[in-house]
Specification:
The complex is a heterodimer of chains A (500) and B (77). By secondary structure, chain A is mostly helical. Chain A has one domain: Sodium/glucose cotransporter (Up-down Bundle). Helix content of chain A is 77%, strand content 2%. Chain A is built from 19 helices and 4 strands. Chain A has a two-stranded antiparallel sheet. Chain A has a two-stranded antiparallel ribbon with strand order 3-4. In chain A, a hairpin with a 2-residue loop joins β3 and β4. Chain B is mostly helical. Chain B has one domain. Helix content of chain B is 53%, strand content 5%. Chain B has a two-stranded antiparallel sheet. In chain B, a hairpin with a 2-residue loop joins β1 and β2. The longest helix of chain B has 23 residues. Chain B is elongated and about 50 Å long. Classes of the chains: A mainly alpha (500), B mainly alpha (77). At the A-B interface, α5, α9, α11 and α13 of A face α1, β2 and α2 of B.
């Protein structure tokens, strides 16, 4: 690759990241120093910003690079999985979990999921467990962003810039950003980036199509080279796999610290309603073009070098260098804001649910803020080091994290809606399903008497689904068998007085 | 009584939206229209329908299923 092209690309990427950083610093200047403002922007987030900040948080390396990579390798059916998952299931959970949490959080002033559950069930242990589990699964997901950034830079520069530099640069930006900006800064940049990515992905589609001879020509070449891509299903896409992916990701997303914490930040109920109705439309607008790009790349015979992502390679082949760099910069910035949101929420879990209750209850706000920022830095460096080992594909690592969070969803839903839920039931449901899930992720599968246990599926269905079922059974079953302790306060979650 | 029926109706609508988000009846179908697979057009239309249904729900039934009165939630809206 010519040196001047490389300079243009790196210049565009660098400039974009610096602009994103500048927005964060401006937001920092208007951010108050108390926790409610730092983490929740004083519960004052409006529709556009809430929608885009949640959306941009989902716009991670998983959707931006992992999805198109999958569409390139196996066909565009991933669009349907994302539609079911993000457009419908998550929207319903947005209402069922999100609105209820918003009602409760608004009345009681909660900032984290663990805090809400710990208070309701009178249990510091439960609070710590929820926070600990959440922080644990954050690790692979932050790592995923760093891997995505590293691979994006490799793809863009044709291998001239090594993988670790991309990963390191994004790590550095993430740390600086979270330490400076707080939720207001993250929400602002999320909105800018969400709009930017939405616009640029369509420009990319138009550009690639016109350069490659139009939609019909692209479609015809895809039908010739990969006819199986146009038919629904086939290859990796079995009904069981598609359903399992959609269900675990949708439920997992609702339990992600950064998403779940968004449930507490809406200014008023109108904001939640509008976001809810706009959700499916936004999903179509973003994911259809992004994943089609991946599939078209296969039809156009674009070859993706080992360890790179298809989108930058495709754009390099069909659009000018500066434009490809702009898309990659936008995607990297989106990954950065995903990571920022995650780490910001993760740090609030760390300080409010673990550090304060267990280590230092009388810590000053200033000290707490320092602990949060040190925690973020240490965590991001840890994930960076792990990302250098590249333990799986973007989709695999994302799946692992989503599945881990999905195990939390049913206990939380049961607690939110069923006043007879007990502390023991919650502990059993969360611990039991986490142990089940962790064993399946980390232990090798074994065959005992012709039956494979700890394998990826049982009866062709993903083990994560069984874990979710287990969490539901344990939470409800143990709650039925145990009595509530005197310090459990089910009235905390009792909302609504409407006569039926 | 009318209230209960409305609740069930909405739960039914959500169930249908979930069930056919993936057009199972087009499984294995590779027909294309205007250069894109028919199942992709289904997806686009279905998401539009879902958005419409969600908008109607948030207008008419939002607080019903939560058992709260609209006045209750106006803390400081």
């Amino acid at each position: 690759m010519a040196e001047s092209t490389l300079l243009v690309q790196l210049g565009v990427v660098g400039a974009y990241l610096v602009v994103a950083l500048a927005v964060g610093i401006v937001a920092y200047r208007v951010t108050g120093r108390d926790a409610e403002d730092y983490y929740l922007a004083s519960r004052s987030i409006g529709t556009g910003v809430l929608l885009f900040t949640t959306f941009a948080t989902l716009l991670s390396a998983f959707t931006f690079f992992g999805g198109p990579n999958l569409a390139y390798a196996s066909g565009p059916e991933w669009i349907l999985v994302m539609g079911l998952m993000d457009g419908i299931l998550f929207a319903i959970l947005w209402y069922a979990i999100g609105y209820r949490q918003w009602l409760i959080g608004k009345a009681r002033g909660y900032v984290t999921l663990g805090e809400m559950l710990g208070d309701r069930f009178g249990s510091k242990r439960l609070r710590a467990l929820v926070a600990g589990v959440s922080i644990f699964w954050l690790f692979p997901y932050v790592m995923l962003q760093q891997m995505g950034a590293g691979e994006a830079i490799v793809g863009l520069s044709g291998g001239a810039v090594p993988y670790w530099i991309g990963a390191a640069v994004i790590t550095l930006f993430i740390i600086v950003y979270v330490v400076l900006a707080g939720l207001r800064g993250v929400a602002w940049t999320d909105t800018i980036q969400g709009v930017f990515m939405l616009g640029i992905v369509w420009i990319a589609v138009g550009w690639v199509l016109s350069a490659a001879g139009g939609l019909d020509a692209v479609s015809a070449s895809l039908a010739e080279t990969n006819p199986e891509f146009l038919s629904l299903g086939g290859g990796v896409y079995s009904p069981q796999w598609m359903i399992a992916q959609a269900v675990t990701i949708a439920f997992g997303v609702a339990m992600f610290p950064q998403i779940n914490q968004r449930f507490f930040v809406a200014k008023d109920v109108r904001v939640l309603k509008r976001s809810f109705a706009l959700w499916p439309v936004l999903v179509v607008l973003l994911f259809v073009p992004a994943f089609l790009l991946g599939s078209w790349a296969a039809g156009l015979g674009v070859s993706v070098p080992e360890g790179a992502n298809v989108v930058p390679v495709l754009l390099n082949a069909y659009t000018p260098a500066w434009f490809a760099a702009l898309v990659v910069a936008g995607a990297m910035a989106a990954m950065m804001s995903s990571s920022d949101s995650m780490l910001l929420s993760g740090s609030s879990y760390l300080t409010r649910d673990l550090y304060r209750p267990f280590v230092n209850p009388t810590a000053s706000d200033e000290r707490e803020a320092w602990i949060a920022r040190l925690g973020v830095a240490a965590f991001a460096i840890g994930t960076f080091l792990a990302s250098l080992l590249r333990p799986g594909t973007l989709i695999e690592i994302g799946d692992t994290a989503f599945g881990g969070y999905a195990q939390l969803a049913f206990p939380v839903i049961v607690a939110l809606y069923w006043s007879r839920t007990t502390r023991q039931g919650m502990l059993a449901g969360i611990l039991g399903s986490q142990l089940f899930y962790v064993a399946h992720v980390f232990l090798p599968s074994v065959t005992v008497g012709g039956v494979t246990v700890l394998g990826p599926t049982y009866f062709t269905w993903d083990f994560a689904l069984y874990g979710m079922a287990l969490s539901l059974v344990l939470t409800v079953g143990v709650s039925l068998l145990t009595a509530a302790a005197p310090d459990e306060r089910s009235e905390t979650f009792a909302i609504g007085t409407r006569a039926d | 009584m009318k209230g209960r029926k409305t609740d069930y109706l909405w739960i039914g609508v959500f169930a249908v939206l979930v069930a056919f988000a993936i057009p199972w009846f087009l499984w294995g179908d590779a027909t294309t229209w205007l250069g894109l697979p028919v199942w992709l057009w289904w997806h686009v239309g279905w998401m539009g329908a879902a958005s419409l249904a969600f908008a109607l729900f948030s207008r008419g039934a939002w607080d019903r299923l939560m058992n709260v009165d609209p006045e209750e939630v106006r803390f400081d809206g």
